[in-house]
Structures are given as C-alpha cells and as structure tokens.
C-alpha cells in the first residue's frame, strides 16, 4: 500500500509556505496556538509523515500515529517526556486507515486508555488486510491477469507486498466521526470534513475561526495522493469519489493554512485543488487519445500515464491508478470493455448510457 501517487504536482504560483524547512525528524514546531507539528520519520523514500498534536485542557489530542515500528515508538516516548511533560493523551484521531497514519493507534489508545476517533469506513478498513504468503491467491492473480499481466509478473508482486506490509495495532472500539461533526479541542472548534478516493472516508479537521485545515493525505502541496483500484474492490470508482471531494473542499476558505500529512504546511488551498483537478483531467484526456488507436489493456495503457517506472512497486501502483482512471471513464460512459482471453480490453464507447450487461458478468 502506498500513500502517494507516482507523479508530482508542482507547487507554483499561488502556493506559499510559511516555514522554509520542516522540523528535524522526531521534533515539533508550533504552527498555531495549541497546535504542534510533529515530524515522524518513515523508512521509505518518502521519509516522513506529519502528525499534529492539539492541546486540550490538562492533556493532548493526537492526530495520526506513524507506523507500528520501534522507531516510531521511540519518537513517541520522547514526545511524552519532552513535549507533553507527562501530561496524558486524551484522545487519538486517525484521518484514515493507512499504515503510517494508524499503525500505532491501538498502542496509543491502550497506553492512555483513551478513545480513538475515526470514520466508520476507515475503522472497518483496518481489518481488511492483504493476503499473507508468497503465493498469489486466485483473486489477486485474476485481478492482475484481467489488467493484462502474465502469471510470472503477478507472482513477482506478492513477495514485495509481504516485505512492505506493516501491522496496524487496531483499537477494539472507536468513536465515529461523520461529515460536519464538531469537535471542541482546547479553545478551538474543529469541523469534520470527509474526503474520499484516496481512502474510503478520510477525516480532515477544519477550524473556520482560525482558518486551519488538518488535511491528512487529502490535500498535499506537491505530490499527488494515490487514487487507485485494488483487488479488494476491482469495480470501484475512487477517482469519481476523489473529484467530488475536491469540489467540497473548494467550499473552505482559501485563506486556510493547510496542515498536510507530508511535506510542509502551505497557503493556497484553492490553487492546489485546481492543480490536482488538472492533473487527473490530463490523465483522462491522455487515455481517451491513446484509445483512438484501438482497444487496449490496462497494462498497455499504463505507460501512457506513467512512462518512468523504477520497479515492481511502481508498476503495481501505476496499474491501480491507471485502472482508477479507466473505471471513471467507464462509469461516465466514455469506455466499454470486452474480455479477450484472461484480460479486459478497453475501447472508446460509441455513445449511450453505460449499463451492466449480462456479458460483463463472468463466473
């Protein structure tokens, strides 16, 4: 599972960054009264995640947790002593279920015997884990064969996924967050804004009075969040959900300081939303142009969107993102598909409403 897409959206023009450099790994910086930015290290090319610590009375509310690794726990131990001064964690909010955001959720909750807050779909997703072992199961194998890969290519994915998997320590209970819920944390009121597409019900927190947006992975300043289809739900349309989310976030103040999960806080919310929209629009235009040459598989279309891949992990992510754009175009009625051997081949539609026909069902 990756938190980020393969292409970078360049932050230009109207984006501004109040801090030229981030805190050092494991260190904090105050970004607003009672709001601390914690730079948690990650063992990836993307070497950090930003966590946010919110002062609340005699203790703290934590937003996201980092990976379930000894390094993350060491950072937290130092925070408990050096930053919190022994004050307790009163609640933990998880923006979404991905490893780096919720890996230590259960550990923190159990340690301080405090509640975990997250959306229902994100809590449920904590318990949907990739199959273990090096041998691909039938659903995994079929998913990528339908994309146009051979059995050997598919088998090469599984050991890599097993090596990259991180266990998430899930809490045994949670308190549900819904769109427009209000949370009073310290002297500040935060409104829950739900995004979708990168994950099912991604929680963001917006303070209208202070123009602060804790955005998680929903709005990032330079890189684009992954929006992809996986074996868990092969017919999903996460890009449709993502684009609808972007329209909702445009309703927030453009003056907001955006506190993202990766890279640096920034101003220029509406400009960045426009960049993200343009990024995906360009991908959609590219696919429809390439398909004028005739029917193609996901594997054949993938290089048109992602021409520079560094290995199996990049290929896996690129296939999922390519399929997300294909499924969006299918739902819009722009594309149709036919099964040729083990792989779907996609074509430009001759027009008319897309419906699920009996020939689309293969058992």
TrEMBL record:
SMART domains cross-referenced by the UniProt entry: Lactamase_B (SM00849)
All residue ranges annotated as the Metallo-beta-lactamase domain in the record: 48-262
Any one Pfam family match given in the protein's UniProt record, by short name: Lactamase_B
Top-rank taxon, per record: Bacteria
Signal sequence region: none
Record protein name field: Glyoxylase, beta-lactamase superfamily II
Organism: Halopseudomonas formosensis
